[in-house]
Amino acid sequence: METIYERLGGVDVVLALARAWHARCLADPVVSHAFSHGFHPQHDERLAAYWGEVLGGPPTFTRTLGDQSTVTRMHSGNGEHHDMDRRALACFEAALDDVPVSDDPQLREALTTWFGWAIQRMGDYHESADDVPAGLPMQHWSWDGPTSG
After folding, report:
1. Per residue in 57-90, pLDDT tens?
2. Residue 58: cis peptide before it, omega within 30 degrees of 0
3. Distance, C-alpha 106 to centroid of its chain
4. Which of 36, 89, 107, 111 has the fewest CB atoms inside 10 Å of its own CB, making it the most exposed?
């Protein structure tokens, strides 16, 4: 069966989506706070590698950058931020049109459902990044929802 990554269009489309989402986040007065401390110069490429792997693409992130614990730690210890999370999801939904991603309703539903779920998972350790255990299984998302993580 075709993966979400494949139907989305592969590496180039995932990178374009990561760039569009990041640009929207930087322009948002609430979400931009998450980037106010600065970010890695290859943020978009790293994000695309993570997203791609989670959505059924190659394991580029885990081969070169880290594991799920690495990603979760980067997003932990910042307290709860429900408004920011809602706005980040809105930025993602808008970025789907910026790219543009196919109008395929199954693809769009899978992507927005995944992104909402992923935001919640990144908030599992809002008290401290030190609470994130080592060796968390890589999150993976299929047409039927989470397959791990």
Report:
1. 999 999 998 887 777 766 554 545 677 789 999 9
2. no
3. 18
4. 36
Name the CA dihedral angle for 95, 97, 102, 107, rounded to a multiple of 10 degrees: 50
Which candidate, 138, 148, 142, places its Cα nearest to that of 70? 138
The two tokens of residue 113 are 């459902």
Q: How many domains does the chain have?
A: 1
Report the alpha-carbon distance of residue 144 to residue 73 in Å, rounded.
26
Distance CA 126, CA 73 (A): 10
CA dist 54 → 3, 36, 121, 146, 149 (Å): 10, 26, 13, 9, 10
Tell me the residue range of the domain where 76 lies: 4-148
Q: Which of 41-50, 118-127, 131-140 has the lowest mean pLDDT?
A: 118-127
Q: What is the pTM of this model?
A: 0.88
